[in-house]
Amino acid sequence: MSERIPTVETFEPIHPKKVKAKSSDNLIHTRSFTGLFRTLRMAGAGFLFLAFFGTVWLNWGGRQAVLWDLAESKFHIFGATFWPQDFILLSALLIICAFGLFAITVFAGRVWCGYTCPQSSFTWLFMWCEKVTEGERNQRIKLQAAPWSLNKLARRSAKHTLWLGISVLTGLTFVGYFTPIRPLAAELLSLQMGGVSLFWVLFFTGATYLNAGWLREAVCMHMCPYARFQSVMFDKDTLTISYDAARGEHRGPRKREVKPSDVGLGDCIDCQLCVQVCPTGIDIRDGLQMECIGCAACIDACDSIMDKMGYARGLVSYTSEHQLQGGKTHLLRPRLIGYSAVLLVMIAALVVALVGRPMVSLDVTKDRGMFRENSQGLIENIYSLKVINKTQQRQDYRLELEDAAGFQLQGKTEISLAPGEISDIPVSVVLLADKPTTSSQTLRFKVTDIDEPWIHSAADSRFVAPMNR
Ligand code: SF4
Ligand code: SF4
Questions:
Q1: Which of 112, 221, 244, 295 to mutate to test the pocket of ligand 1 (most atoms within 8 A of CB)?
Q2: Fewest CB atoms less than 10 Å from the CB: which of 4, 104, 143, 407?
Q3: Cα–Cα distance for residue pair 316/312, rounded to 1 Å
Q4: InterPro entries of this UniProt entry (predicted)?
Q5: Residue 426: pLDDT band by 50, 70, 90 thresholds?
Q6: Is 284 in the pocket of ligand 1 (CB under 6 A)?
Q7: Is residue 321 located within the same domain as residue 366?
């Protein structure tokens, strides 16, 4: 006897009805599936979860390897430390990420949403918890409809316990990037966490639990700004996940050995599997929709059906509007080249800025008093030099004036600073001549590493003097 692919028999072969993606409880219960894109997504999400949950526990040189130390206004990332003065680089990095997202969206649509967005990744993880505790799609629909019983209570409790466990871990990890994670975890375990840390851990726990457990696709559809404006970035060559209606219609069930053309059917057997696996509950056969997050679950589902039917894969696939209209997808096109070029230039500029970042910083503040006469009757101005050692080692520095003939720096001119130490050094500058030639002159102060002279920094200030002495 020939094997029949399970199909929904209630559909007329040539007059497809609108598929209801949601069950009668108005919830989306996705069906499990396997396939190439699911494997890719799991590998990507696994890597991101490992990076997110694992990195925070790494140590480097006696401190947490990645830590945005809010109390000290420093951002440590492995061997590098960034100071508030360097945060312009962080802004540049964010702009680069935004441009990267634009470029990838022009090229391949919503791959960010489908594969790497934390909202999607956590939702898939929470859906997996749901499957483990409440069973497959049909079991979950039955459980939802069933009256409360011990079984339902136990399964629901297990699901929410898992969701909450992951949420607490996420909240703790997130806050751990801003407050050292080890003492933070110890405080949480001993129930001694309080104040600001407790507020933020609870906040991110609640956000994870709500967003991934309850809101899910609603976040993508109604709250995410990227979902709203990304369609303007699409062009006719952007890769989107689409159903090949020319090949699939008319849809309808049939036995495997029946040739579709013999019964006036296309390749779609109307099994609804593509709808049942969709996390946003849409039917890809209705065309490109804002709700589609580009997760490719429907491709995997449909390919598995095509394999069973002995048809070619790709009834639902990554394709472009041009390709669907019988043309070719143009990979190199002006908008994509433009985005990529800008992206490359910005990345190169950021690398240059990072490499050339001064590892010692100097700020000069002039004393509020304009000038004074010292004991030798010479004009003197007072300054405070703020020096920051941005390296990971103790360094010895020399302080001096650059190209300032006729002036003398007085006070401490050699200092030694520990890694990350900030020092305020009071100094004075004396005009060696009896009479000034100008009432105000720019002076350049310089700090130079004694052992590594290529590490240096400079800052300007004014020297003022009376003209009518
Ligand atoms: S239509 Fe397909 S690609 Fe889009 S969200 Fe649903 S399953 Fe994912
Ligand atoms: S497109 Fe594929 S998965 Fe969807 S109903 Fe048709 S055959 Fe089934």
A1: 295
A2: 4
A3: 11
A4: 4Fe4S_Fe-S-bd, 4Fe4S_Fe_S_CS, Cyt_c_oxidase_cbb3_FixG, Electron_Trans/Redox, FixG_C, Helical_ferredxn, Ig-like_fold
A5: very high
A6: yes
A7: no
Within a domain: residue 389?
yes
Using CA atoms in the order 248, 318, 117, 102, what is the torsion angle rounded to 10 degrees? -130
Q: Which of 227, 237, 218 is nearest to 289 (CA)?
A: 227
Does one domain contain both 261 and 317?
yes
Classify residue 72: in a domain, yes or no.
no
Q: Answer whether 278 contacts ligand 1 (Cβ < 6 A).
A: yes
| Spatial separation of the C-alpha atoms in residues 180 and 178, rounded to whole Å | 7
Q: Are residues 371 and 458 in the same domain?
A: yes
Among 325, 344, 375, the domain-final residue is 325
- Angle, CA of 200, 202 and 203, to the nearest 5°: 60
99 occurs within a structural domain: no
Q: Nearest residue CA, atom 3 of ligand 2?
A: 302
Ligand nearest to the CA of 216: 1
Residues β-bridged to residue 389: 360
CA distances in angstroms from 127 to 97, 153, 201, 214, 278, listed in the order given: 29, 18, 23, 11, 12
Q: 385: domain CATH number?
A: 2.60.40.10
Q: Looking at the predicted structure, is the pLDDT value of residue 469 above 70?
A: no
Q: Phi/psi at 112 (nearest 5 deg)?
A: -60, -50
Atom of ligand 2 nearest to the CA of 298: 3
User: Is residue 401 domain-resident?
Assistant: yes
Is 295 close to ligand 1, i.e. is its CB under 6 Å away? yes
Cα–Cα distance measured from residue 292 to residue 220, given in angstroms and rounded to the nearest whole number: 9
Domain finish residue from 268, 301, 325: 325
The residue range of the domain holding 422 is: 360-464
User: The tokens of 51 are what?
Assistant: 């990076």
| Same structural domain, 378 and 453 | yes
pLDDT digits (tens, 9 = 90+) for 274-301: 999 999 999 999 988 888 999 999 999 9
Question: Does residue 374 share a domain with residue 452?
Answer: yes
Question: Which of the listed residues 230, 284, 285 should we mutate to test ligand 1's pocket, taking the one with most ligand atoms within 8 A of CB?
Answer: 284
- Do 372 and 450 lie in one domain? The reply is yes
Do the Cβ atoms of 427 and 409 come closer than 8 Å?
yes
What is the band of 467 on the pLDDT scale with cuts at 50, 70, 90? confident
Which ligand is closest to the CA of 296, given by its number?
1
If you measure from the C-alpha of residue 125 to the centroid of ligand 2, how many angstroms do you get, rounded to a whole number? 25
Instruction: State whether the beta carbon of 282 lies less than 6 angstroms from ligand 1.
Output: yes
| Strand ranges for 98-255 from DSSP E | 240-243
Distance in angstroms (rounded) separating the CA atoms of residues 101 and 331: 17
Counted domains in the chain: 2
- Supply the pLDDT for residue 23: 56
Segment among 6-15, 73-82, 454-463 with least mean pLDDT: 6-15
The larger pLDDT score, comparing residue 92 to residue 434, is at 92
CB of 297 within 6 A of ligand 1: the answer is yes
